[in-house]
Write a structure and sequence with these properties.
258 residues, alpha/beta, 16% strand, globular
């Protein structure tokens, strides 16, 4: 049991943090109703990159079971800790949201709780993914970028069509689109363009792409207005990230029982 890993005082602390997360989720649901969206249609992914493993414990107790990570090595370490806790092992669902590196795919293939990769951007990545049986069985999102800047991950709107066609030919299970709206860009315009592209791809390829992963802590309200079905939230859910000199994934130990 999760509770057996911690002292009674720390269990009280976990519950109190979980309640704060629940309040944030309730705020999102209330906003959904205010704009005539069904809260049940919106999935929230808690982003815990560079955060202690405990944040996943808090999320679990708040009923937030989808967890997003950006770094393969950090995800592997957290996934190993998940394996040691039966309740979490059965329920936590990991999403990889970082830039795909072909030399790190083997690491991702070994993660039992990995359910989705949201950052598919190139046909070469698809070809490499297909070499791993476990990775062929999970879900994918095509990551778009709103500009053609080379230092941004994702494919252009024009490239997305060819990428989807390649994914379908390789029989990868593409579920939709992911896009990041960068500061200084009009979030409503970015999200609307992504939704319209998704709609066109569904029509042109006769496929269903139900997932629109749009919206982070700074712009989730605009994303919901424009049709997002999945929010990726870090600071809004967990508070400001504690700045640390530790490398990603280094501070992952469970707090021991007093």
């Amino acid at each position: 049991m999760v509770k057996r890993l911690f002292s009674n005082s720390y269990i009280v602390f976990i519950v109190s943090v979980a309640e704060k997360i629940k309040q944030k989720v309730a705020e999102i649901r209330e906003y959904c109703r205010a704009i005539s969206r069904d809260p049940a249609e919106i999935k929230i992914v808690g982003i815990t990159k560079n955060q202690p493993f405990q944040k996943i414990i808090y999320s679990y107790h708040a009923g937030l079971l989808d967890i997003g990570e950006s770094y393969a090595q950090e995800l592997v370490k957290k996934a190993k800790l998940i394996e040691e806790i039966p309740e979490l092992k059965e329920k936590i669902r990991f999403h990889f949201i970082g830039r795909l590196q072909r030399n790190k795919l083997k690491l991702l293939a070994g993660i039992k709780n990995l359910r989705m990769i949201q950052s598919l951007a190139r046909k070469e990545e698809v070809d490499s993914i297909c070499k791993y049986k476990d990775l062929r069985e999970i879900d994918y999102l095509i990551q778009l970028k709103s500009t053609e800047e080379k230092n941004r991950n994702g494919c252009t709107f024009e490239e997305a069509r060819e990428l989807l066609e390649h994914c379908l030919a390789k029989k990868l299970n593409v579920m939709g689109i992911m896009i990041i709206n960068f500061p200084g860009e009009c979030s409503r315009d970015t999200f609307r363009s992504a939704r319209e592209l998704r709609d066109n791809l569904e029509k042109d390829f006769s496929v269903e792409l139900p997932v629109l992963s749009m919206g982070m802590s700074r712009d989730w309200r605009d994303a919901l207005i424009e049709g997002s079905t999945m929010l990726r939230l870090g600071e809004f859910i967990y508070g400001k990230r504690e700045h640390s000199k530790l490398r990603p994934g280094e501070d992952l130990n469970l707090r021991p029982t007093d």
